[in-house]
Amino acid sequence: MTGKIDHEAMKARLLAEREATVQEDQAHAENRKVVEVDARFGRLSRMDALQQQAMAEAAHQRATERLRRIDAALKRIEDGEYGYCVSCGEEIGVKRLEADPAIATCIDCASRSEQKG
Q: Which end of the chain, N or C, is less surrounded by CB atoms within 10 Å?
């Protein structure tokens, strides 16, 4: 590792990002509700509502995954395992963690994973 990880700063960033993600997800909750069929609306209005619903649901799935990753990173901090790759156990570069404090793998393991999938 080319630097020292400030665990408290990373924890603060993760908690702030978690709160922002929760708030953003809650703000879009209304758009995820089931679109009711209503004769007063035309076909295009229903299609638009369905598209908005699908986009809101996709955003919710991304938020759920991000929250899972943030919570896992917070757990690694608590357990004293933060900054180490969950795949190989090697240290994760500080710059990589600064770019995404919820990252769980080193660049080598991430690259291998991308090549497989």
A: C
84 DSSP β-pair partners: 91
**Secondary structure of the chain in HEC code, one letter for each residue:** CCCCCCHHHHHHHHHHHHHHHHHHHHHCHHHHCCCCCCCCCCHHHHHHHHHHHHHHHHHHHHHHHHHHHHHHHHHHHHHCCCCECCCCCCECCHHHHHHCCCCCCCHHHHHHHHHHC
Q: Averaged over 70-81, what is the pLDDT? A: 97
**Predicted confidence band of residue 1 (pLDDT cuts 50, 70, 90):** very low
Contact 96, 107 (CB under 8 A): yes
